[in-house]
Amino acid sequence: MTTQDDVPPLDICGLPYPHDPARYCTRRSGHRPRHLHQTARSEQWVVKPRGVLYLVACAAPPAADLATPIRGAQELGWDVCVIVTPSVHRWATEDPDSGIDLDALAELTGYPVRHTYKLPSEPDLLPSPDALLVAPMTNNTVNKWAAGVSDTLALGLITEAIGLDRPIIALPHFNRAQAAHPAVNASVATLRGAGVNVLLGEGGFVPHEPRTSDRHAYPWLAALAALPTLPAERD
Ligand SMILES: Cc1cc2nc3c(=O)[nH]c(=O)nc-3n(C[C@H](O)[C@H](O)[C@H](O)COP(=O)(O)O)c2cc1C
User: Fold this and answer.
1) Could you tell me the CATH superfamily of domain 49-225?
2) Mutate to test the pocket of ligand 1, among 84, 95, 116, 138 (most ligand atoms within 8 A of CB)
3) Is the Cβ–Cβ distance between 199 and 219 less than 8 Å?
4) What are 132-154's pLDDT values in tens digits?
5) Do 99 and 66 contact (CB within 8 A), yes or no?
């Protein structure tokens, strides 16, 4: 008979997962995230659902790698929904070399990838979020978010999430010159003051020199490790 001690530690993105699997594994019963069958490593044990995670992606090169945090979050028990900014949607639909396949992301998550507000008469297509990860976060979005602008679905969701007290992790991706603009420092301080966990600096994203971006060095694991560990309380 399989016991909890027999369950091998899960890993995320190929790296060892540091937590005790006993904290998030349970027997296969009751509610489970819709992609659990893809992520469970055993017939006997499945990942305990943590809730719904919104992955909000802005137009920076790591947007081509969204499958990495999606799979990692699913392994941690999150049901993941992807929301992209209109710029990401344009990259995905107009640039055949963008490497962003929105249909593949919808297939991976089981939810449509949203980039615009619904019409007033349309139903909500996504469940409400228990936590949000904004990554990659551009300097454009960090400044608009801190100013409370909500003229895109992505901004509307993350501005509202602050007031709803949802846990929010933000992992920037911008170069040292962009980061040097005084608005960026002020925006990061504003968001941190509002409770957003902005992973800027050592242990998170450290801005690179202009034209030296390496999307493969983007610290997705830092964002996944910062996600809340307990099932979120729903309203
Ligand atoms: C090829 C390319 C790479 C870019 N990389 C970045 C980046 O790493 N960080 C950033 O803040 N902006 C970057 N930008 C600029 C943003 O895409 C631009 O500011 C856009 O308006 C951001 O919109 P969004 O924040 O709504 O996604 C890049 C633009 C292009 C065309």
Assistant:
1) Flavin prenyltransferase-like (3.40.50.1950)
2) 138
3) yes
4) 999 999 999 999 999 999 999 99
5) no
